[in-house]
Amino acid sequence: MPSSTIDVLSRHLEHVPFADPTSDLPTLAAVLDAVPDPRSRRGRRYRLGPLLALSLLAVLGGATSLTKITRFIAGYDPALRAKLGLPTTIRLASSTLGRLLARLDGDTFDVATCAYLAALTTCHPPQATTDTTATARTPLLGLAVDGKTLRGSRTSDDVTHLLAAVRHDTQIVLAQRQVEAKSNEIPAFTPLLGGLDLSSMVITADALHTQHDHARQIVAAGGHFLFIAKGNQPSLHRRLKSLPWREAILNDRTDERGHGRREIRRMKICTVRPHLPFPHALQAIQVKRRRTHHRTGKTTIVTIYAITSLPPGRVAHTQLAALIRGHWGIEALHHIRDVTYREDACKVRTGAAPRILASLRNLAIGLTRLIGWTNIAAATDHYRSHPADGLQLLGLTT
Fold it and tell me: Count of CB atoms within 10 A of residue 271's CB?
């Protein structure tokens, strides 16, 4: 058996160099088998771990509904299903799979799958240190926090809304929580980050999460924040707008063309007036974004204000600008789930099932990103056409 999933899957993209992790990891089926099974022992025909693993392989191959997942599982060779401990003569019904997923513990499932992806990256944040010089040399990792509504899960009473923490560089989901019914994302922020090591992390978030308690939590955990400031913090927003931006020097400028438009970003940083009405805020940032659409010729100019706990000189100005832009990479993850996996068109609504399917999509995207796929649609085509490559996720083939 190979030492790691990355070692096996990197063979699927021979042109992608990837360093071997040194630690042995359990197979993905073993990780999923550790998820608590909500069913009574009597009458179980399908083992939970292998069934979830095959469901993941179906999603990896582009399955977008329970019906397609069960059809994918039924298509496997009976000998393979027997090896996994699954019945070879009984066809799994999509309703049966849906009832099982609806009863799973979503928090436990996300903890298991997110921890597995984090282990595969072999890039856990370094331990906090009291050595100021060493801390200044420690690279910082951007972690974006944002939510997404699963529109297809909407019922007359509620809709599934998930809050996730996603790495800027790899689109790996490190944590995910479901927002409580009749609530919003703010109360879910603290438990979302509670289990993560935030040292050497810069947490980026939109204006909804520009909250005093969130800033204190992040700094107390050894991390930094970079928050967008808007009208939900009126005193802070007014103070930021009144800073002497005309006199401030231009710290960074980018000029990018793509997607039928040209976008120029200018960033200024103000550190000369401390005591912003926000805990641990050390720098104020203004970003002017000028966007021109080639087809229409229309130009729009938007000004964005942000605050950060990063002290002056902790990161280069180009890195600070990259952290601001990198936050919106989480929107790219949501776009892939909607377009490639048709998440919003999925009508699964019962219990935890919508969340479990979203987590399987996160896991599939994370695995394909880690081995070098840049086009997730091409990755789904590959694994649909080469199921043996997908089976290597389970350690069944070498």
Answer: 13
